[in-house]
Amino acid sequence: MSKKSVIFICTGNSARSQLAEALFRHMAGEQFDVFSAGTAPEPVDPRVFEVLNSRHMSTEHLRSKDLASLSERHFDYAITLCDKARQSCVAQVKAAQILAWDFADPKAKAGTKAFDVVLNELSERIKYFLLFSQKYRAGPEQLGDALSFYKALADDTRLKTLLLIQQQQELCVCELTAALTETQPKISRHLAQLRKAAILQDRRHGQWVFYRLADNLPDWALTVLQLTAENNSDLIADNLSKLNQMGDRPQRAALCS
């Protein structure tokens, strides 16, 4: 099977995208041709090499490149790592899928700690991406489901909604509104998107509509949510506290398995 191709894009191609290129090649170089580029390239920050070398990752191919120099190449995936690059790269890159990941620029802080943090965060995101990409290869009929699921995780409210529902088994709109401190219309809109993507299903009991993970959600999707919850328990800790403080929660214990 021929290799897929992926390019990481940020403004300067001097830190985040260089870390992503080296890490992705280290993790899946046998499956993907990996590139990086910038919309306004700058010299690679020396701390990139320092952090990668400390983890015994190759820096052989790392150099700053202008995205315009790759304008004739077609990629399977283009992944932007900052909002500015996302806005400007769409017209410059040819890719079957363009994904937006947003990471803080580590160059603004002294030392290498911020670079290590970004590298760790990239590692978790790439693990999920590789899990999805393996499903893509199973056949085109699964592509739409995987993409819908992946897009759901990209939104903060929807991701926390899924993690809360996974932890609680079932939740209604009012409970999610209290836990996430969002308006009812916004929560309902996100729930409708998750239900349309076949990630959630609902049931009505009296005046309440309860939402839970879809019974036919694939094992790989459940695994992604479980890994996310296990490795990011602090992500919804405050939301769970608010939920537990909520008064007059709907009674459903007898109705849930």
Automatic annotation (TrEMBL):
Record SUPFAM superfamilies: Phosphotyrosine protein phosphatases I (SSF52788), Winged helix' DNA-binding domain (SSF46785)
A molecular function (GO) term: DNA-binding transcription factor activity
GO BP field: response to arsenic-containing substance
KW Transcription (keyword) present: yes
Keywords: Arsenical resistance, DNA-binding, Transcription, Transcription regulation
Chain ranges of the HTH arsR-type domain: 138-232
Lineage: superkingdom: Bacteria
Coiled coil regions in record: none
Stored PANTHER family: ARSENATE REDUCTASE (PTHR43428)
Name of the protein described by the UniProt record: Transcriptional regulator, ArsR family
Species: Rheinheimera pacifica
Taxonomic lineage: Bacteria, Pseudomonadati, Pseudomonadota, Gammaproteobacteria, Chromatiales
